[in-house]
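Action item from last meeting closed. Structure (353 res):
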């Protein structure tokens, strides 16, 4: 019999429901993730292709630059064809930016501005004489052991091997030369946003005060010139050549100190690439024209020295003279160049007499 005063029996407690678990995320296959990344890069490149090309062209010559341009240039051509670069251009315009990355304006300094020149009527893109002196600069003198020629050799990587060979030859033949050199890799007159040659020329001339300067550059200049306002002058065109001549004239005036010293500007050799060979022909014509207007400048044409039969060749007189990139001279080629430059210096300054 049930006790009426007994406490009621406890109801059984239902077990607690297990917590709801979020379904585990499915891992993304590595191949699919790579495809997503590549598509994202491709779309980004199509929207910003111009800047990719601009940055890659400013890099020093080497495999990284070659690889980037191999992809960047076709990508830029595709973007322009499909007009996928228009949104970025529209945004730049709305923000007050120019439609392309502009250069730093190094050649627009008030102290160095020169009027834009036009190619001379009937001017040919073919390089001219071996050495073309301009109107007279300061008088030459006979260098002596007691008063050697104070020489400065500078430029881009094209003079990397030639400069030490020049000084070694001077030492070997007991020439009266007191020389120094400086190489600025990946630079030129086209991309003053990467390196300001006018400013550097002022500093170098003030610090070193040489009697003579040997300059050689241009390997990285086979690309368009972006003016400070954003306008692009495409490489190899008459407008590009005229602007290059203007910039070269400014540089020559800075290096000579407006006629106080002598400058020997070495032109570009022919390149393996047909596009670059054309660019360098226009460049050399611009240099020769600029040299003819600046007292104290001698333009040294080396085109024929490395174009046997008028065409590019890795070999001259059976000797390998070019680097694998088809632009630079190798050590043998630099030796040949050095002998030519040394001969011209010796004739002007009587270094070995």
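Sequence:
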């Amino acid at each position: 019999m049930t006790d009426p005063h007994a406490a009621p029996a406890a109801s059984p407690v239902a077990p607690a429901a297990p917590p709801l678990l979020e379904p585990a995320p499915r891992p993304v296959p590595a191949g699919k993730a790579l495809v997503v990344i590549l598509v994202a890069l491709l779309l980004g490149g199509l929207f910003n292709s111009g800047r990719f090309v601009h940055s890659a062209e400013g890099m020093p010559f080497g495999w990284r630059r070659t690889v980037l341009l191999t992809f960047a240039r076709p990508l830029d051509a595709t973007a322009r064809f499909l007009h996928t670069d228009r949104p970025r251009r529209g945004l730049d315009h709305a923000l007050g930016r120019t439609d392309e990355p502009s250069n730093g304006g190094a050649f627009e300094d008030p102290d160095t501005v020169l009027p834009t020149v036009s190619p001379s009527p009937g001017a040919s893109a073919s390089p001219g004489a071996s050495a073309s002196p301009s109107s007279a600069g300061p008088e030459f003198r006979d260098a002596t052991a007691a008063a050697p020629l104070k020489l400065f050799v500078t430029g881009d990587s094209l003079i990397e091997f030639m400069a030490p060979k020049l000084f070694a030859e001077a030492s070997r033949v007991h020439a009266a030369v007191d020389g120094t050199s400086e190489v600025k890799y990946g630079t030129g007159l086209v991309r003053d946003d990467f390196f300001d040659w006018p400013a550097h020329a002022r500093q170098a001339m003030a610090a070193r005060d040489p009697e003579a300067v040997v300059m050689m550059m241009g390997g990285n200049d086979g690309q368009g010139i972006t003016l400070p306002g954003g306008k692009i002058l495409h490489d190899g065109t008459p407008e590009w050549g005229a602007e290059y001549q203007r910039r070269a004239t400014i540089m020559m005036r800075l290096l000579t100190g407006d006629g106080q010293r002598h400058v020997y500007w070495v032109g570009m050799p022919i390149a393996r690439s047909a596009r670059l060979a054309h660019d360098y022909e226009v460049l050399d014509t611009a240099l020769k024209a600029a040299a003819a207007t600046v007292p104290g400048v001698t333009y040294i044409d080396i085109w024929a020295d490395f174009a046997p039969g008028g065409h590019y060749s890795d070999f001259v007189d059976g000797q390998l003279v070019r680097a694998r990139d088809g632009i630079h001279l190798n050590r043998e080629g630099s030796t040949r160049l050095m002998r030519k430059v040394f001969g011209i210096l010796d004739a002007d300054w009587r270094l070995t007499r």
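Note appended to the action item: The chain has two domains: 30-94, 106-349.
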